[in-house]
Amino acid sequence: MNLSESGICALMDTQVAQGSLVKIQIANTVVYGQATHATEENGKFRTGFTVEQVLLRTSDLTTILRALLSEQLVAAERAGI
Fold it and tell me: Which residues neighbour 69 within 8 Å (Cβ) at sequence distance 6 or greater?
């Protein structure tokens, strides 16, 4: 899974149609978004999602996820993305 400032790219077992609304649960965090593209790779689908809303729950894992997302955003800003 790759994270960026406005999206997520994940390797999925099944194809998600472009434009589909999705709910992605990562630990105690829920991400709502929309599928933007899917490319087949070795029987799986590398799928891009735009992030519309993120709901963070309180847990140690959520704290780690927040830190990771913050680091990704800082790296993207430094790279001019």
Answer: 3
Domain ranges of the chain: 2-78
Start-to-end C-alpha separation, the chain:
18
Using CA atoms, how far apart are residues 81 and 75, in angstroms rounded to an integer? 9
Q: Are 12 and 51 in contact (CB under 8 A)?
A: no
pTM for this entry: 0.61
**Is there a contact between 51 and 24 (Cβ–Cβ < 8 Å)?**
no
pLDDT tens for each residue of 29-56 = 888 899 999 999 999 999 999 998 888 7
